[in-house]
């Protein structure tokens, strides 16, 4: 079973010990409700590093008031079992007080890829919340690598840019999207979709694949 720790000090003590033994450490930041996509990040983490830490924290700063913070799935016991099967070494699952303290006053404000007009167009609060928590996780953990899925491509660009801008010595490693048989990218929020909505959603991937195929073959993509 992975060691489960809830404080920054405990996580840092483990990372310091591993580093003193000459071991490399990879971080997999998550909000829990783990699926095959997250487990792939863990497996890819082991290709880069000797030890893998998975963080589980549903970050209130990346949810707008009307979004699903309250109903976001919280399945820690099941998540830890899945991680045990992958031989993950440590789970960092802090509460909001450990993460932000009682008087938190700092926000990482991102421009550049955070203003590309994609997800930021619909969720203007989102990337500052992600950049704030991910910069904290990087500084808290002091790992060598951090694994991020290409599924959330704009997020991957944002955290890579943020680490570079803030001189955080951690290599952000992109990991290919894991999909279900019908083409849908694995996502914790897929469980919100009705059968009909899921069918509608798969038509988006079919349309994108068909357009990409036409573009690659030099044909008309319309
Ligand atoms: O992709 C996610 O699950 C979250 O945005 C992350 C990177 C764990 C930050 O809360």
Q: How would you describe the overall organization of this protein?
A:
The protein has eight helices and six strands; from the N terminus they run E-H-E-H-E-H-E-H-H-H-E-H-E-H. The radius of gyration is 18 Å and the shape is globular. The model has no long low-confidence stretch (mean pLDDT 96). It is of the alpha/beta class. Helix 2 links the parallel strand 2 and strand 3 (51-56). The termini are far apart. Helix 6 (126-141) crosses helix 7. The structure holds pantoate. Residues 29-31, 59, 62, 130, 133-134, 152, 155 line the site of pantoate (PAF).
The percent range for strand residues is 5-15%
Helix content: 40-55%
| Chain-averaged pLDDT | 96
Largest sheet: 6 strands, parallel
Low-confidence stretches: none
Tertiary shape: globular
Determine Rg (CA atoms, Å). 18 Å
Ligand kinds: pantoate
**Strand/helix succession:** EHEHEHEHHHEHEH
Structural class: alpha/beta
Strand order of the largest sheet: 1-4-3-2-5-6
The rounded distance between the terminal residues' Cα atoms is 51 Å
The total beta strand count reads 6
Specify the number of helices.
Answer: 8
List the helices and strands and how they pair.
Layout: E1 3-5, H1 8-20, E2 25-30, H2 36-48, E3 51-56, H3 76-85, E4 90-92, H4 96-100, H5 119-122, H6 126-141, E5 145-149, H7 153-165, E6 171-175, H8 195-216
The site of pantoate (PAF) has 10 residues, from strand 2 and helix 6.
């Amino acid at each position: 079973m992975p060691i489960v720790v809830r404080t920054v000090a405990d996580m840092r003590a483990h990372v310091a010990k591993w580093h003193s033994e000459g071991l490399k450490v990879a971080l997999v930041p998550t909000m829990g409700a783990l699926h095959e996509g997250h487990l792939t990040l863990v497996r890819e983490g082991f290709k880069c590093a000797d030890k893998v830490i998975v963080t589980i924290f549903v970050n209130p700063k990346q949810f707008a008031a009307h979004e699903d913070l309250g109903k976001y799935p919280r399945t820690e016991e099941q998540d830890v079992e899945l991680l045990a099967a992958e031989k993950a070494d440590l789970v960092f699952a802090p509460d909001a007080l450990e993460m932000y303290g009682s008087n938190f006053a700092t926000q990482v404000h991102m421009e550049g890829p955070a203003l590309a007009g994609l997800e930021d167009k619909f969720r203007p609060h989102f990337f500052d919340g992600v950049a704030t928590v991910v910069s904290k996780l990087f500084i808290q953990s002091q790992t060598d690598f951090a694994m991020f899925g290409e599924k959330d491509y704009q997020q991957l660009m944002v955290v890579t840019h943020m680490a570079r801008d803030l001189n955080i010595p951690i290599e952000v490693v992109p990991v290919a999207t894991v999909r279900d048989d019908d083409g849908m990218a694995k996502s914790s929020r897929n469980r919100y979709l009705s059968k009909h909505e899921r069918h509608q959603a798969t038509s988006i991937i079919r349309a994108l694949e068909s357009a990409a195929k036409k573009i690659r073959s030099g044909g008309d993509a319309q």
